[in-house]
Design brief:
single chain; alpha+beta; Dna Ligase, domain 1; binds zinc ion
Length: 133
């Protein structure tokens, strides 16, 4: 499977990918829809959703299914970890200081074969730390 630019990629799909890459906030499908709609007013939410799912299946982007939040999309397909603000829900990439893949740090996987890891840290973002409410 090649991840090279697909000449058959539709304008819609290319714009959805552009909007996702322009955003560092790990947007939901609704948020991407709002942005793409400014440029393609006739696009539907269903089309945006289908294209996001297709891009994720191709490995061009990453689908994030995290606890307690609406599914989000990540422009970066390589494995990485996240921190979420407990107050405003903002989600950012986090850098973990180990060269060992997290999955290899598991001592007892209860007999499971590990396929993938997704770590989500919970915290309070800088903006929320500065506000009193
Ligand atoms: Zn916050
Ligand atoms: Zn991310």
């Amino acid at each position: 499977m090649s991840q090279k630019r697909n000449p058959r990629m539709t304008i819609q799909r290319r714009m959805i990918l552009d909007e996702l890459r322009a955003s560092r906030s790990h947007p939901t499908a609704d948020e991407i829809y709002d942005r793409v709609r400014r440029r393609l007013p006739r696009i539907s939410l269903g089309t945006v959703y289908r294209n996001l799912e297709a891009l994720a299946s191709q490995g061009a982007i990453q689908r994030l299914d995290l606890a307690g939040v609406q599914r989000r999309f990540d422009h970066m397909p390589a494995p990485h970890h996240h921190i979420r603000c407990a107050r405003c829900g903002r989600l950012e990439d986090i850098v973990i200081g180990t060269s060992t893949p997290i999955g290899e740090l598991v001592r007892d996987a209860r007999g499971f074969k590990i396929l993938d890891v997704s770590l989500e840290f919970l915290g309070i973002c800088p903006e929320c730390q500065g506000s009193s409410d």
